[in-house]
Design goal:
Helix content is about 85%, strand content about 0%. With about 70 residues, the protein is mostly helical.
Length: about 70
């Protein structure tokens, strides 16, 4: 079975984004356990949430691209 380079890149990107999402979710859980409302904790929470949203959007785009690749004639 031969995968196109594009499909391999999509798979690698998906794996990378999934890993980053897991890390960001763990960091956010840690911040929630601290229950901190100081400016640094609030800023970190906002930053991590922004990064998490961005990576989820990228993952969704890659998923859509993967589906397009799967149905495209080779």
């Amino acid at each position: 079975m031969s995968l196109s380079i594009d499909q391999k890149l999509i798979e690698e990107g998906t794996a990378q984004l999934t890993s980053e999402i897991e890390v960001l979710e763990a960091w956010l859980r840690e911040l929630e356990m601290l229950n901190g409302d100081d400016i640094e904790t609030v800023a970190a929470r906002k930053s991590y949430n922004d990064m998490l949203r961005s990576r989820r959007e990228m993952l969704s785009s890659l998923d859509q691209e993967s589906k397009v690749q799967a149905v495209s004639p080779k």
